Amino acid sequence: MKEKQCHDDTFSRIRHIQETLQSFVYNPNGATYDVNKKRPLSELLDTGKLIGSHPTKPIQCVEGAFVALHMSQQYTGIHRFSLSFQSLDEASVVRHHLVLGVYGGDKYGAFGISRCPALMNKPMQFDTLADLLADFKQSYEGVGHKVQMITIGRPVAHDTTAEQVVWNYLRVSASDWAVVTKHAASFHDRLVRDSPQLWDTPIIPAAEEPQPRVSRSLAQKQPDRRCVSMGSAPADPSVPQ
């Protein structure tokens, strides 16, 4: 009974954060705030707090991740980690999108914002990380995108004095879903064992990391930036423009 109450409290807190993100309007014209992810965690949390204090200002996916980090920082019973998706749309244009994966109460879900509702928040109902990733893959296919690469970040520390967030801990090609499932299971094993030493060793050796196959013409046309479309104004790449 006590464990169930604990899980219910966790899910309630997560839903509150998701509802807060849903209350924001998506910004089709580019980022409003500093979206440099290489800053110290404390600065990202400060940016998230600033964004949260101006709920009427539109935001994009990275800004949404900062808000979620800030709002969940005190909830030490949940694990947060970035999920980045590289996809190819119907016009063969490479797109990038970022959400924040979350694990708590033995379930997985996600925090995020997007112009496409299916590519933002995910309820805490997935038994495995692979199930959550498969749901995102299906959602992408529903808007005419093919997921090429998935990048998972290292769990974000609840210690505000921690340095930078590791956004690219595990990078895997989506071409072989059995491989995605295998590495997602390895990530989960490290997550539940919660041993800092485990995270110092990569799940996939650097020499074996998959490289996206993008034609020279596409690489020249499309800059590799998060949440940026091919147009002159940054926009959410999660749906065809």
Automatic annotation (TrEMBL):
Q: Which residues form the active site?
A: 61, 97, 114
Residue spans crossing the bilayer? none
The record's annotation in Pfam families points to: Vasohibin (PF14822)
Q: Where is this region: Disordered?
A: 206-241
Give me the Gene Ontology terms describing cellular component.
cytoplasm
Full protein name = Uncharacterized protein
Tell me what organism the protein belongs to: Eutreptiella gymnastica
